[in-house]
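For the sake of transparency, this paper describes our internal protein records without simplification. The remainder of this section carries one protein's record, kept here as part of the documentation:
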Amino acid sequence: RDGDAVLEGSVVRDARRRGSRPAVMIVHDWDGPNAHELRVARKLADLGYVAFVADIYGKGVRPTSQAENAREAGKFYADAALFRSRLLAGFETTRNLPDVDRKRVAAYGYCFGGSGVIKLARTGADVRSVVSFHGGLDAGTPAENKAIRANVLVLHGADDPLVPPADVLGFRTALEAARKPYTFVAYPGAVHAFAVQEAGSDKSRGAAYDPVADRKSWARAKAFLDKNGVR
């Protein structure tokens, strides 16, 4: 729950494993929790994580068109406090799941969710690492950037028309001004949604699946968690 709002996420774990283990919270794209996030959760569970697909929109709120996607995502882009509150509700739910080591929790986000995990880090939450896959980027405020405690990895499509170079520069400049270390990786030829199979293959639309960028970004994210003590 987030206040009076009921949210409905999904937990995926390997039932054969026992005892305390790390966890990854997954924040969905603008179309809400779907098959893509569940595939990611299963892959993470196979690696030994407890995976939690968080619901930002609310139980039963599942957009079915581009217009509905834009409307639901727009509510949270327009209300930063609400977005932060939902992200923190998902994070606390993840930390409190059975068998989760509360000190080894990371967050993955895709597109809308990629922007979301950066916002989660900017709350000062005790999240070990955040990984943004083709997420929106912005400069944030100096206070927000100073609050970051997480290790930050941004995986970006070098040809993404939905995240212009000015946004990338603003994000990088702001984190450097706050003296916050981060890792930024851009995949040549990749556009928005490069890790989402359902995005199709037509790059002229500005959003398309790129199997090479998907494979490389997955490996980079896994190594990032290993390096930063989430495993």
